[in-house]
User: Fold this.
Amino acid sequence: MSLIEVKNVSKQFGGLAALTDVSFVLNKDEILGLIGPNGAGKTTMFNVINGFYRPTKGDVLLSGKRVSNLRPHVLCKLGVARTFQVVRPLQRMSTLDNVIASAFIRIKSKAEAEKLSLDVLQFTGLSDDINVLSKGLPLGKRKRLEIARALATQPEIILLDEAFAGLNPTEINEQIEIVQKIRTERGITILIIEHHMKVIMAVSDRIIVLNYGQKIAEGTPSEIGHNPVVIEAYLGEEHSA
Amino acid sequence: MKKYLPHIIFAGLCVVPLMDLSSYIMHILILVLMWSVIGMAWNILGGYTGQVSFGHAAFFGFGAYTAGILYYHLGISAWWGIPACVVILTALSLVVGYICLRLRGAYFALATLALGEICRVTTENLVDFTQGNMGIMIRERTWVDKTWYFYIILFIAAGTFLLIKIVMESKLGYYFVAIREDQDAAESLGIDTTFYKTISLCLSGVLTGIAGAFFMNYMGYIDPGVVFPLYDISITTVMVVMVGGAATYWGPVVGAVIMVFLAEEIRSLPYIGAAHMTIFGVILILIILFVPNGLVGDYRRLLKPFKHKKEASS
Ligand SMILES: Nc1ncnc2c1ncn2[C@@H]1O[C@H](COP(=O)(O)OP(=O)(O)OP(=O)(O)O)[C@@H](O)[C@H]1O
Ligand SMILES: [Mg+2]
Assistant:
Protein backbone atom coordinates (compact mmCIF):
# COMPACT_ATOMS: atom_id res chain seq x y z
CA MET A 1 0.00 0.00 0.00
CA SER A 2 1.46 3.36 -0.94
CA LEU A 3 1.56 5.97 1.80
CA ILE A 4 3.16 8.72 -0.23
CA GLU A 5 2.93 9.00 -3.95
CA VAL A 6 5.03 11.59 -5.75
CA LYS A 7 3.56 12.20 -9.19
CA ASN A 8 5.54 13.95 -11.91
CA VAL A 9 6.89 16.56 -9.55
CA SER A 10 8.98 19.41 -10.95
CA LYS A 11 10.38 22.29 -8.95
CA GLN A 12 11.95 25.35 -10.53
CA PHE A 13 13.91 28.02 -8.69
CA GLY A 14 13.89 30.80 -11.24
CA GLY A 15 15.73 29.30 -14.16
CA LEU A 16 17.12 26.39 -12.15
CA ALA A 17 15.30 23.07 -12.43
CA ALA A 18 15.91 21.51 -9.01
CA LEU A 19 13.49 18.67 -9.77
CA THR A 20 12.23 17.52 -13.14
CA ASP A 21 9.29 15.17 -13.51
CA VAL A 22 10.11 12.93 -10.54
CA SER A 23 7.70 10.13 -9.63
CA PHE A 24 7.94 7.41 -7.00
CA VAL A 25 5.95 5.80 -4.23
CA LEU A 26 6.76 5.18 -0.60
CA ASN A 27 5.03 2.06 0.67
CA LYS A 28 3.84 1.45 4.18
CA ASP A 29 6.50 0.01 6.51
CA GLU A 30 9.18 0.54 3.94
CA ILE A 31 12.60 2.11 4.27
CA LEU A 32 13.21 3.95 1.03
CA GLY A 33 16.62 5.48 0.36
CA LEU A 34 17.08 8.66 -1.66
CA ILE A 35 20.60 9.20 -2.98
CA GLY A 36 22.38 11.36 -5.51
CA PRO A 37 25.30 13.75 -5.83
CA ASN A 38 25.34 17.17 -4.13
CA GLY A 39 22.72 19.47 -5.57
CA ALA A 40 20.76 16.59 -7.10
CA GLY A 41 17.53 17.85 -5.54
CA LYS A 42 17.12 15.45 -2.61
CA THR A 43 16.46 18.08 0.04
CA THR A 44 14.22 19.92 -2.39
CA MET A 45 12.20 16.72 -2.76
CA PHE A 46 11.74 16.64 1.05
CA ASN A 47 10.72 20.28 1.07
CA VAL A 48 8.09 19.57 -1.55
CA ILE A 49 6.76 16.52 0.28
CA ASN A 50 6.52 18.27 3.63
CA GLY A 51 4.88 21.37 2.24
CA PHE A 52 7.70 23.91 2.49
CA TYR A 53 7.72 24.28 -1.27
CA ARG A 54 4.87 23.98 -3.66
CA PRO A 55 5.79 21.86 -6.66
CA THR A 56 5.95 23.88 -9.88
CA LYS A 57 4.30 20.91 -11.56
CA GLY A 58 2.94 17.61 -10.36
CA ASP A 59 1.42 16.42 -7.10
CA VAL A 60 2.18 14.76 -3.83
CA LEU A 61 -0.44 12.35 -2.51
CA LEU A 62 -0.65 11.13 1.06
CA SER A 63 -2.75 7.97 1.38
CA GLY A 64 -4.33 8.90 -1.94
CA LYS A 65 -5.18 12.47 -0.96
CA ARG A 66 -3.53 15.44 -2.64
CA VAL A 67 -1.42 17.32 -0.11
CA SER A 68 0.83 19.46 -2.27
CA ASN A 69 -1.01 22.66 -1.37
CA LEU A 70 -0.90 22.16 2.41
CA ARG A 71 1.41 23.85 4.87
CA PRO A 72 4.11 21.95 6.79
CA HIS A 73 2.25 22.00 10.11
CA VAL A 74 -0.75 20.36 8.49
CA LEU A 75 1.42 17.64 7.01
CA CYS A 76 2.98 17.10 10.39
CA LYS A 77 -0.48 16.72 11.88
CA LEU A 78 -1.30 14.23 9.13
CA GLY A 79 1.69 12.18 10.22
CA VAL A 80 4.64 13.34 8.13
CA ALA A 81 7.65 14.39 10.24
CA ARG A 82 11.06 15.47 8.98
CA THR A 83 14.56 16.32 10.08
CA PHE A 84 16.62 19.16 8.64
CA GLN A 85 19.94 18.47 6.94
CA VAL A 86 21.20 21.81 8.22
CA VAL A 87 20.06 21.33 11.80
CA ARG A 88 17.56 23.82 13.16
CA PRO A 89 17.26 23.31 16.91
CA LEU A 90 15.22 25.81 18.89
CA GLN A 91 18.46 27.25 20.15
CA ARG A 92 17.62 28.93 23.41
CA MET A 93 15.49 26.03 24.59
CA SER A 94 16.84 23.01 26.41
CA THR A 95 17.06 19.70 24.62
CA LEU A 96 14.08 18.45 26.59
CA ASP A 97 12.00 21.56 25.86
CA ASN A 98 12.76 21.23 22.16
CA VAL A 99 11.22 17.80 22.18
CA ILE A 100 8.32 18.73 24.45
CA ALA A 101 7.39 21.52 22.02
CA SER A 102 6.95 18.96 19.27
CA ALA A 103 5.24 16.39 21.48
CA PHE A 104 2.42 18.87 22.12
CA ILE A 105 1.08 18.28 18.63
CA ARG A 106 -0.85 15.21 19.78
CA ILE A 107 -0.71 15.60 23.55
CA LYS A 108 -2.50 18.24 25.59
CA SER A 109 -0.97 17.85 29.04
CA LYS A 110 2.56 18.91 29.81
CA ALA A 111 3.24 15.92 32.05
CA GLU A 112 2.41 13.48 29.27
CA ALA A 113 4.34 15.50 26.69
CA GLU A 114 7.34 15.34 29.00
CA LYS A 115 6.99 11.61 29.47
CA LEU A 116 6.93 10.96 25.73
CA SER A 117 9.85 13.34 25.25
CA LEU A 118 12.02 11.59 27.83
CA ASP A 119 11.23 8.34 26.08
CA VAL A 120 12.32 9.51 22.62
CA LEU A 121 15.37 11.22 24.10
CA GLN A 122 16.40 7.92 25.61
CA PHE A 123 15.74 6.23 22.28
CA THR A 124 18.06 8.67 20.51
CA GLY A 125 20.70 8.50 23.23
CA LEU A 126 20.27 12.04 24.51
CA SER A 127 19.18 11.24 28.07
CA ASP A 128 22.27 12.84 29.54
CA ASP A 129 21.72 16.12 27.73
CA ILE A 130 18.13 16.95 28.54
CA ASN A 131 18.92 20.17 30.40
CA VAL A 132 21.55 21.46 27.99
CA LEU A 133 20.54 24.42 25.83
CA SER A 134 20.31 22.94 22.37
CA LYS A 135 22.68 25.49 20.85
CA GLY A 136 25.37 24.09 23.14
CA LEU A 137 25.12 20.55 21.81
CA PRO A 138 27.82 19.18 19.51
CA LEU A 139 26.71 18.57 15.92
CA GLY A 140 26.23 14.82 16.27
CA LYS A 141 23.83 15.34 19.14
CA ARG A 142 22.03 18.17 17.43
CA LYS A 143 21.41 15.80 14.54
CA ARG A 144 19.99 13.24 16.93
CA LEU A 145 17.85 15.95 18.49
CA GLU A 146 16.35 16.48 15.03
CA ILE A 147 15.35 12.82 15.04
CA ALA A 148 14.02 12.99 18.60
CA ARG A 149 11.85 15.99 17.76
CA ALA A 150 10.48 14.30 14.68
CA LEU A 151 9.68 11.14 16.65
CA ALA A 152 7.95 13.15 19.38
CA THR A 153 5.32 14.23 16.85
CA GLN A 154 4.35 10.53 16.70
CA PRO A 155 4.49 10.38 12.93
CA GLU A 156 3.46 7.67 10.54
CA ILE A 157 6.23 8.64 8.14
CA ILE A 158 9.58 10.18 8.90
CA LEU A 159 11.80 11.95 6.38
CA LEU A 160 15.44 11.75 7.48
CA ASP A 161 17.71 14.21 5.66
CA GLU A 162 21.32 13.24 6.39
CA ALA A 163 20.30 12.82 9.98
CA PHE A 164 23.62 11.52 11.22
CA ALA A 165 27.11 12.86 11.63
CA GLY A 166 30.39 11.07 12.18
CA LEU A 167 31.85 8.35 10.08
CA ASN A 168 33.75 5.95 12.29
CA PRO A 169 32.63 2.30 12.16
CA THR A 170 30.94 2.25 15.60
CA GLU A 171 28.96 5.39 14.77
CA ILE A 172 27.90 3.92 11.46
CA ASN A 173 26.63 0.78 13.11
CA GLU A 174 24.77 2.83 15.71
CA GLN A 175 23.12 4.82 12.94
CA ILE A 176 22.02 1.72 11.10
CA GLU A 177 20.58 0.37 14.32
CA ILE A 178 18.65 3.56 15.12
CA VAL A 179 17.07 3.69 11.66
CA GLN A 180 16.06 0.05 11.84
CA LYS A 181 14.63 0.49 15.31
CA ILE A 182 12.53 3.47 14.18
CA ARG A 183 10.75 1.02 11.91
CA THR A 184 10.71 -2.14 14.00
CA GLU A 185 9.98 -0.66 17.42
CA ARG A 186 7.84 2.28 16.40
CA GLY A 187 6.27 1.09 13.17
CA ILE A 188 7.24 4.24 11.28
CA THR A 189 7.76 4.29 7.53
CA ILE A 190 11.04 5.92 6.53
CA LEU A 191 12.29 7.96 3.59
CA ILE A 192 15.99 8.53 4.12
CA ILE A 193 18.62 10.69 2.44
CA GLU A 194 22.13 9.60 3.34
CA HIS A 195 25.48 10.10 1.68
CA HIS A 196 27.14 7.27 3.50
CA MET A 197 26.77 4.27 1.24
CA LYS A 198 27.26 1.66 3.92
CA VAL A 199 24.31 3.04 5.88
CA ILE A 200 21.98 3.43 2.92
CA MET A 201 22.79 0.02 1.49
CA ALA A 202 22.28 -1.64 4.86
CA VAL A 203 18.95 -0.07 5.81
CA SER A 204 17.06 0.50 2.55
CA ASP A 205 14.53 -1.89 1.06
CA ARG A 206 14.62 0.12 -2.13
CA ILE A 207 16.67 3.08 -3.34
CA ILE A 208 15.83 5.98 -5.65
CA VAL A 209 18.68 7.81 -7.35
CA LEU A 210 18.43 11.46 -8.34
CA ASN A 211 20.85 13.29 -10.57
CA TYR A 212 20.45 16.91 -11.71
CA GLY A 213 16.87 16.80 -10.48
CA GLN A 214 15.92 13.72 -12.44
CA LYS A 215 15.26 10.21 -11.26
CA ILE A 216 17.88 8.07 -12.98
CA ALA A 217 17.33 4.76 -11.23
CA GLU A 218 15.19 2.86 -8.77
CA GLY A 219 15.70 -0.59 -7.30
CA THR A 220 16.95 -2.76 -4.50
CA PRO A 221 20.32 -1.89 -2.96
CA SER A 222 22.09 -4.59 -4.96
CA GLU A 223 20.44 -3.52 -8.21
CA ILE A 224 21.48 0.06 -7.56
CA GLY A 225 25.00 -1.00 -6.60
CA HIS A 226 25.41 -2.69 -9.97
CA ASN A 227 23.59 -0.15 -12.14
CA PRO A 228 26.14 1.32 -14.59
CA VAL A 229 24.29 4.65 -14.90
CA VAL A 230 24.30 5.11 -11.14
CA ILE A 231 27.93 4.09 -10.87
CA GLU A 232 28.91 6.65 -13.43
CA ALA A 233 26.79 9.47 -12.00
CA TYR A 234 27.30 8.91 -8.33
CA LEU A 235 28.89 5.86 -6.85
CA GLY A 236 32.18 6.00 -8.69
CA GLU A 237 34.42 3.14 -9.59
CA GLU A 238 35.20 1.67 -6.19
CA HIS A 239 31.57 0.67 -5.61
CA SER A 240 31.27 -1.20 -8.89
CA ALA A 241 33.76 -3.77 -7.81
CA MET B 1 11.84 31.30 48.67
CA LYS B 2 12.12 32.36 45.05
CA LYS B 3 8.89 30.57 44.36
CA TYR B 4 7.06 32.82 46.79
CA LEU B 5 8.59 36.06 45.54
CA PRO B 6 5.46 37.07 43.59
CA HIS B 7 3.27 36.41 46.64
CA ILE B 8 5.55 38.41 48.92
CA ILE B 9 5.73 41.35 46.54
CA PHE B 10 1.98 41.26 46.01
CA ALA B 11 1.30 41.17 49.75
CA GLY B 12 3.77 43.99 50.27
CA LEU B 13 2.08 46.14 47.66
CA CYS B 14 -1.34 45.41 49.14
CA VAL B 15 -0.40 47.20 52.36
CA VAL B 16 1.27 50.16 50.61
CA PRO B 17 -1.88 52.35 50.67
CA LEU B 18 -2.07 51.87 54.44
CA MET B 19 1.29 53.59 54.78
CA ASP B 20 -0.17 57.03 54.17
CA LEU B 21 2.26 57.92 51.39
CA SER B 22 2.12 61.21 49.58
CA SER B 23 -0.16 61.52 46.61
CA TYR B 24 2.89 61.97 44.38
CA ILE B 25 4.49 58.70 45.49
CA MET B 26 1.19 56.88 44.98
CA HIS B 27 1.03 58.37 41.50
CA ILE B 28 4.51 57.05 40.71
CA LEU B 29 3.62 53.60 42.02
CA ILE B 30 0.47 53.53 39.93
CA LEU B 31 2.50 54.46 36.84
CA VAL B 32 5.03 51.73 37.63
CA LEU B 33 2.28 49.14 37.87
CA MET B 34 0.63 50.39 34.68
CA TRP B 35 3.92 50.23 32.80
CA SER B 36 4.53 46.76 34.20
CA VAL B 37 1.26 45.65 32.62
CA ILE B 38 2.17 47.21 29.27
CA GLY B 39 5.67 45.74 29.44
CA MET B 40 4.40 42.27 30.34
CA ALA B 41 1.86 42.49 27.54
CA TRP B 42 4.51 43.51 25.01
CA ASN B 43 6.76 40.76 26.32
CA ILE B 44 4.27 38.07 25.30
CA LEU B 45 4.54 39.08 21.67
CA GLY B 46 8.02 40.60 21.48
CA GLY B 47 9.91 38.70 24.16
CA TYR B 48 8.45 35.21 24.05
CA THR B 49 7.08 34.98 20.52
CA GLY B 50 9.88 37.07 19.00
CA GLN B 51 7.62 39.45 17.05
CA VAL B 52 9.05 42.84 17.97
CA SER B 53 6.41 45.56 17.82
CA PHE B 54 7.09 49.29 17.65
CA GLY B 55 3.41 50.09 17.61
CA HIS B 56 2.01 49.16 20.98
CA ALA B 57 0.73 52.70 21.36
CA ALA B 58 -1.98 51.58 18.94
CA PHE B 59 -3.27 49.03 21.45
CA PHE B 60 -2.80 51.31 24.42
CA GLY B 61 -4.56 54.17 22.69
CA PHE B 62 -7.38 51.97 21.43
CA GLY B 63 -7.97 50.80 24.97
CA ALA B 64 -7.97 54.35 26.27
CA TYR B 65 -10.34 55.53 23.56
CA THR B 66 -12.63 52.53 24.07
CA ALA B 67 -13.12 53.69 27.65
CA GLY B 68 -13.28 57.35 26.66
CA ILE B 69 -15.80 56.91 23.88
CA LEU B 70 -18.08 54.68 25.97
CA TYR B 71 -18.18 57.48 28.49
CA TYR B 72 -18.46 60.33 26.04
CA HIS B 73 -20.98 58.91 23.58
CA LEU B 74 -22.96 56.46 25.68
CA GLY B 75 -22.68 58.28 28.96
CA ILE B 76 -21.73 55.15 30.89
CA SER B 77 -18.84 54.81 33.28
CA ALA B 78 -15.45 54.70 31.60
CA TRP B 79 -14.67 51.66 33.74
CA TRP B 80 -16.79 49.66 31.29
CA GLY B 81 -13.89 50.29 28.96
CA ILE B 82 -11.93 47.54 30.67
CA PRO B 83 -14.29 44.66 29.82
CA ALA B 84 -15.11 46.26 26.48
CA CYS B 85 -11.40 46.24 25.67
CA VAL B 86 -11.36 42.47 25.61
CA VAL B 87 -13.74 42.49 22.65
CA ILE B 88 -12.50 45.61 20.86
CA LEU B 89 -8.80 44.82 21.21
CA THR B 90 -9.27 41.21 20.13
CA ALA B 91 -10.94 42.50 16.99
CA LEU B 92 -8.17 45.03 16.39
CA SER B 93 -5.49 42.40 17.02
CA LEU B 94 -7.09 40.02 14.54
CA VAL B 95 -7.06 42.72 11.86
CA VAL B 96 -3.51 43.77 12.66
CA GLY B 97 -2.42 40.14 12.80
CA TYR B 98 -3.96 39.36 9.46
CA ILE B 99 -2.10 42.23 7.84
CA CYS B 100 1.21 42.31 9.71
CA LEU B 101 1.96 38.81 10.93
CA ARG B 102 2.73 37.50 7.48
CA LEU B 103 5.73 39.83 7.63
CA ARG B 104 8.85 38.75 9.43
CA GLY B 105 11.48 40.47 11.56
CA ALA B 106 12.21 44.07 10.65
CA TYR B 107 9.27 44.19 8.24
CA PHE B 108 6.86 43.30 11.00
CA ALA B 109 8.44 45.92 13.27
CA LEU B 110 8.06 48.58 10.57
CA ALA B 111 4.47 47.64 9.88
CA THR B 112 3.56 47.97 13.56
CA LEU B 113 5.37 51.29 13.71
CA ALA B 114 3.17 52.52 10.88
CA LEU B 115 0.12 51.12 12.67
CA GLY B 116 0.68 53.30 15.73
CA GLU B 117 1.01 56.39 13.60
CA ILE B 118 -2.07 55.50 11.53
CA CYS B 119 -4.09 55.24 14.73
CA ARG B 120 -2.86 58.59 15.97
CA VAL B 121 -3.59 60.44 12.75
CA THR B 122 -6.98 58.77 12.34
CA THR B 123 -8.01 59.66 15.86
CA GLU B 124 -6.93 63.24 15.31
CA ASN B 125 -9.14 63.48 12.24
CA LEU B 126 -12.30 61.60 13.25
CA VAL B 127 -13.34 64.69 15.17
CA ASP B 128 -17.05 63.81 15.48
CA PHE B 129 -16.29 60.47 17.02
CA THR B 130 -13.13 61.13 19.02
CA GLN B 131 -13.16 64.88 19.60
CA GLY B 132 -9.87 65.00 17.67
CA ASN B 133 -7.12 66.99 19.31
CA MET B 134 -9.52 68.41 21.87
CA GLY B 135 -9.38 65.04 23.53
CA ILE B 136 -11.86 63.42 25.88
CA MET B 137 -12.21 64.53 29.45
CA ILE B 138 -14.03 62.72 32.25
CA ARG B 139 -15.69 65.44 34.26
CA GLU B 140 -16.74 63.48 37.31
CA ARG B 141 -13.72 61.46 38.49
CA THR B 142 -14.51 58.24 40.36
CA TRP B 143 -12.22 58.94 43.32
CA VAL B 144 -10.14 61.88 44.38
CA ASP B 145 -7.93 59.69 46.51
CA LYS B 146 -5.48 57.39 44.73
CA THR B 147 -5.99 54.29 46.89
CA TRP B 148 -8.57 52.53 44.73
CA TYR B 149 -6.79 53.33 41.50
CA PHE B 150 -3.74 51.74 43.04
CA TYR B 151 -5.62 48.58 44.01
CA ILE B 152 -7.27 48.29 40.61
CA ILE B 153 -4.01 48.53 38.68
CA LEU B 154 -2.33 46.26 41.23
CA PHE B 155 -4.93 43.57 40.58
CA ILE B 156 -4.63 44.04 36.83
CA ALA B 157 -0.86 43.70 37.11
CA ALA B 158 -1.05 40.64 39.36
CA GLY B 159 -3.63 39.06 37.05
CA THR B 160 -1.41 39.73 34.04
CA PHE B 161 1.61 38.24 35.80
CA LEU B 162 -0.35 35.13 36.74
CA LEU B 163 -1.88 34.74 33.29
CA ILE B 164 1.54 34.95 31.64
CA LYS B 165 2.95 32.40 34.06
CA ILE B 166 0.15 29.98 33.29
CA VAL B 167 0.42 30.54 29.55
CA MET B 168 4.19 30.18 29.47
CA GLU B 169 4.12 26.88 31.29
CA SER B 170 1.56 25.42 28.93
CA LYS B 171 1.61 24.26 25.34
CA LEU B 172 0.94 27.84 24.25
CA GLY B 173 4.15 29.07 25.87
CA TYR B 174 6.20 26.34 24.25
CA TYR B 175 4.72 27.24 20.90
CA PHE B 176 5.43 30.96 21.35
CA VAL B 177 9.08 30.33 22.14
CA ALA B 178 9.43 27.75 19.38
CA ILE B 179 8.15 30.34 16.90
CA ARG B 180 10.65 32.87 18.20
CA GLU B 181 13.54 30.47 17.90
CA ASP B 182 12.81 29.20 14.39
CA GLN B 183 9.57 29.75 12.57
CA ASP B 184 10.25 27.23 9.82
CA ALA B 185 11.35 24.52 12.22
CA ALA B 186 8.30 25.24 14.38
CA GLU B 187 6.07 24.95 11.35
CA SER B 188 7.49 21.56 10.43
CA LEU B 189 7.03 20.37 14.02
CA GLY B 190 3.32 20.81 13.54
CA ILE B 191 2.92 24.32 14.92
CA ASP B 192 0.49 26.49 13.00
CA THR B 193 2.74 29.52 13.26
CA THR B 194 0.24 32.01 11.81
CA PHE B 195 -2.45 30.92 14.27
CA TYR B 196 -0.24 30.98 17.35
CA LYS B 197 1.36 34.29 16.43
CA THR B 198 -2.17 35.68 16.17
CA ILE B 199 -3.05 34.31 19.61
CA SER B 200 0.08 35.91 21.03
CA LEU B 201 -0.81 39.22 19.42
CA CYS B 202 -4.38 39.08 20.76
CA LEU B 203 -3.18 38.41 24.31
CA SER B 204 -0.65 41.19 24.03
CA GLY B 205 -3.09 43.62 22.45
CA VAL B 206 -5.91 43.01 24.92
CA LEU B 207 -3.68 43.40 27.98
CA THR B 208 -2.12 46.58 26.59
CA GLY B 209 -5.61 47.89 25.84
CA ILE B 210 -6.72 47.21 29.40
CA ALA B 211 -3.81 49.30 30.62
CA GLY B 212 -5.00 52.02 28.24
CA ALA B 213 -8.56 51.86 29.53
CA PHE B 214 -7.23 52.13 33.07
CA PHE B 215 -5.18 55.15 32.01
CA MET B 216 -8.31 56.91 30.73
CA ASN B 217 -10.07 56.35 34.04
CA TYR B 218 -7.08 57.29 36.12
CA MET B 219 -5.89 60.39 34.28
CA GLY B 220 -9.36 61.58 33.37
CA TYR B 221 -8.15 63.07 30.10
CA ILE B 222 -6.80 61.69 26.84
CA ASP B 223 -5.98 63.03 23.44
CA PRO B 224 -4.25 61.41 20.47
CA GLY B 225 -0.88 62.90 21.38
CA VAL B 226 -1.09 61.46 24.89
CA VAL B 227 -2.12 57.88 24.14
CA PHE B 228 -0.81 57.22 20.61
CA PRO B 229 2.69 58.74 20.62
CA LEU B 230 5.55 56.84 19.05
CA TYR B 231 8.20 57.84 21.60
CA ASP B 232 6.33 58.16 24.84
CA ILE B 233 4.38 54.92 24.47
CA SER B 234 5.58 52.59 21.69
CA ILE B 235 9.30 53.06 22.18
CA THR B 236 9.11 53.43 25.93
CA THR B 237 7.30 50.07 26.00
CA VAL B 238 10.15 48.42 24.12
CA MET B 239 12.63 50.08 26.49
CA VAL B 240 10.81 48.93 29.61
CA VAL B 241 11.19 45.34 28.44
CA MET B 242 14.73 45.70 27.10
CA VAL B 243 16.00 47.35 30.27
CA GLY B 244 14.40 44.75 32.50
CA GLY B 245 14.93 41.72 30.31
CA ALA B 246 12.87 40.31 27.46
CA ALA B 247 11.30 36.89 27.85
CA THR B 248 11.61 36.94 31.64
CA TYR B 249 8.75 37.10 34.14
CA TRP B 250 10.21 39.95 36.14
CA GLY B 251 11.97 41.88 33.38
CA PRO B 252 9.03 44.15 32.48
CA VAL B 253 8.38 44.88 36.16
CA VAL B 254 11.99 45.79 36.87
CA GLY B 255 12.09 47.77 33.64
CA ALA B 256 8.94 49.67 34.59
CA VAL B 257 10.37 50.62 37.97
CA ILE B 258 13.57 51.90 36.40
CA MET B 259 11.98 53.70 33.47
CA VAL B 260 9.29 55.45 35.48
CA PHE B 261 11.75 56.66 38.12
CA LEU B 262 14.27 57.64 35.47
CA ALA B 263 11.66 59.56 33.50
CA GLU B 264 10.60 61.43 36.64
CA GLU B 265 14.18 62.18 37.67
CA ILE B 266 15.42 63.27 34.28
CA ARG B 267 12.38 65.38 33.59
CA SER B 268 12.90 67.33 36.78
CA LEU B 269 16.55 68.08 36.04
CA PRO B 270 17.17 71.67 35.01
CA TYR B 271 18.24 72.32 31.38
CA ILE B 272 18.51 68.69 30.23
CA GLY B 273 15.00 67.67 31.32
CA ALA B 274 13.56 68.47 27.93
CA ALA B 275 16.07 66.12 26.33
CA HIS B 276 14.85 63.06 28.22
CA MET B 277 14.24 61.11 25.02
CA THR B 278 17.88 61.67 24.03
CA ILE B 279 18.99 60.33 27.38
CA PHE B 280 16.69 57.31 27.00
CA GLY B 281 18.21 56.69 23.59
CA VAL B 282 21.71 56.67 25.05
CA ILE B 283 20.58 54.32 27.81
CA LEU B 284 19.08 51.96 25.24
CA ILE B 285 22.36 51.83 23.33
CA LEU B 286 24.28 51.11 26.55
CA ILE B 287 21.83 48.36 27.46
CA ILE B 288 22.13 46.70 24.06
CA LEU B 289 25.92 46.86 24.31
CA PHE B 290 26.45 45.75 27.90
CA VAL B 291 23.36 43.92 29.13
CA PRO B 292 21.66 42.69 25.96
CA ASN B 293 19.38 40.41 27.96
CA GLY B 294 18.31 43.18 30.31
CA LEU B 295 18.93 43.49 34.03
CA VAL B 296 16.91 40.41 34.93
CA GLY B 297 18.28 38.37 32.04
CA ASP B 298 21.89 39.27 32.74
CA TYR B 299 21.89 39.69 36.48
CA ARG B 300 24.09 36.68 37.04
CA ARG B 301 26.61 38.17 34.68
CA LEU B 302 26.31 41.53 36.39
CA LEU B 303 27.03 39.91 39.76
CA LYS B 304 29.98 37.98 38.47
CA PRO B 305 32.76 40.55 38.98
CA PHE B 306 31.79 40.78 42.67
CA LYS B 307 31.74 37.02 43.08
CA HIS B 308 35.20 36.80 41.58
CA LYS B 309 36.55 39.28 44.10
CA LYS B 310 35.06 37.29 46.94
CA GLU B 311 36.54 34.06 45.66
CA ALA B 312 39.92 35.71 45.34
CA SER B 313 39.86 37.14 48.85
CA SER B 314 38.69 33.97 50.57
N1 LIG C 1 15.43 27.90 -1.97
C1 LIG C 1 16.20 27.71 -3.04
N2 LIG C 1 16.35 28.72 -3.94
C2 LIG C 1 17.13 28.56 -5.04
N3 LIG C 1 17.78 27.43 -5.33
C3 LIG C 1 17.67 26.39 -4.49
C4 LIG C 1 16.88 26.48 -3.30
N4 LIG C 1 16.95 25.29 -2.65
C5 LIG C 1 17.74 24.52 -3.39
N5 LIG C 1 18.18 25.15 -4.51
C6 LIG C 1 19.03 24.59 -5.56
O1 LIG C 1 18.42 23.41 -6.00
C7 LIG C 1 19.39 22.43 -6.28
C8 LIG C 1 19.09 21.18 -5.48
O2 LIG C 1 19.38 21.45 -4.12
P1 LIG C 1 19.12 20.40 -2.97
O3 LIG C 1 19.40 21.08 -1.68
O4 LIG C 1 17.78 19.81 -3.12
O5 LIG C 1 20.24 19.31 -3.25
P2 LIG C 1 20.62 18.03 -2.42
O6 LIG C 1 20.45 16.88 -3.33
O7 LIG C 1 19.90 17.99 -1.13
O8 LIG C 1 22.16 18.27 -2.19
P3 LIG C 1 23.09 17.92 -0.92
O9 LIG C 1 23.52 16.51 -1.10
O10 LIG C 1 24.24 18.86 -1.06
O11 LIG C 1 22.29 18.14 0.30
C9 LIG C 1 20.74 23.04 -5.96
O12 LIG C 1 21.30 23.50 -7.15
C10 LIG C 1 20.39 24.19 -5.05
O13 LIG C 1 21.31 25.22 -5.19
MG1 LIG D 1 20.37 18.11 0.80
